[in-house]
Amino acid sequence: MTAAAERRGGIRPPVAWSAPGFPRLAAGWVATNLGDSALFLMVAVWVKELTGSDVAAGFVFVALGLPAILAPFIGMMADRMPRRRLLVINNVALVPVVLSLLLVSGAGQLWLVYAVVFVYSAAGYVTASAQSGIIRAMLRDEQLASGNGVLSTIDNGLRLVSPLIGTALYVWLGAPAVIVLTAACFAAAAIIVAGLPVGAAAPEREVQRGYFRELVAGFEQLFAPQSLRVVTIAAAIGFGATGLLNIVVFPALDAMRVDPVAIGVLVPIQGAGAVLGGILSATIVTRWGEGRAAALGLLLVAAGSVPFAFGSVVLGGAGMFVMGIGIPITVVAFSTLRQRMTPDALQGRTGAAANVLVNLPQTLVSIIGAGLLIFVDYRVLIWVAVGAVVVGAATALRARRAPALADAGALPLE
């Protein structure tokens, strides 16, 4: 966008777009998420069709969440290695891991599906930890909300096309086509991120504080400033409760009297809402502050979950759209606050700790929900989830507007 175009009132690109390397980072994010969105939904549907079991399909989401226990170690690795190199190695390693799913021919190889999903999810923690530091090094404070908004929009916007592509390939050519597509996307991402202008050197090391203190330093940082502590707790409660929604998705589709493959249509509807939420997120976070923005996002997630209790595919689609708006607003608010208030040497560990505190509760709730689903009507679990997400939103409202890093109470690197 030229200056002349801006004077004529043209649409300005996001402020993060002017940062050197950010377009390349965004391109790598496109490649990663194109395969990512297609694969994990296809695997859940695949397991459902292989076994006929809602519980077996639900445990795909459990396998996705379990690597949270490794996140502190992954975060420390991201704070010790050159982050660009780590991203490249991670994407290259995912290619043969994903391709090993081609060996699955029936329910007898279900263990391999869960194992691949576990490793694939752990690699996601590596990407998140390394990328957090790269984003912080690449963008100024005033660009962070914009950059996170762009990446969130890409992530969720691809939900418009990836599940449709994945579903079409799955129905037309079977699971192998989706598997090969995903592996190719990770290979492309490795090539793209290899040219990033930041992250070539390892982060500066702080003075040693003992191995355990080093390992948990990310958690300490999350709970040091009041605003970051409150928003972290709110996100843990709100997103943790959505673990119940992961478990009830297939019973809800059964109640709507549609095929499980219909999830490949509903998720793009969520993606449409997420595109809108991602576009709005930077403005909302900048004007409202991270705490109130996170509260708004969680309220939208709660509101979007309600329609699934009524067995209507039309209402369900509307709910997915509303939920889609709320998720990126919450994620961008939390990510921006965390990155803004965390020193570079702790970015990987704090990013990993944030993923643990959000994803581990979600995984534990999914495990509990999978057990309860045998005895409890799925609609009861939906209402429990809605109530918990509202509690998370109320918690986020207690966060004070955060000052700049210099005044935020970040942990000293001593």
Number of strands: 0
| Second rung of CATH, namely the architecture | Up-down Bundle
Find the CATH topology. Growth Hormone, Chain: A
**Proportion of beta-strand residues:** under 5%
Instruction: Tell me the series of helices and strands, N- to C-terminal.
Output: HHHHHHHHHHHHHHHHHH
According to CATH, what is the class? Answer: Mainly Alpha
Q: Please report the distance between the alpha carbons of the first and last residues.
A: 45 Å
Radius of gyration, rounded? 20 Å
CATH superfamily: MFS general substrate transporter like domains
Shape: globular
Mean pLDDT: 84
Number of helices: 18
Q: Main sheet, how many strands, which sense, barrel?
A: none
Which quaternary structure do these chains form?
single chain
Overall tally of structural domains: 1
Membrane topology: Multi-pass membrane protein
Subcellular location: Cell membrane
Transmembrane segments: 55-74, 86-105, 111-135, 179-202, 230-253, 265-286, 316-335, 356-374, 380-397
Keywords: Cell membrane, Membrane, Transmembrane, Transmembrane helix
Quick summary:
The protein is mostly helical and 414 residues long. It is built from 18 helices and no strands. Its main location: membrane.
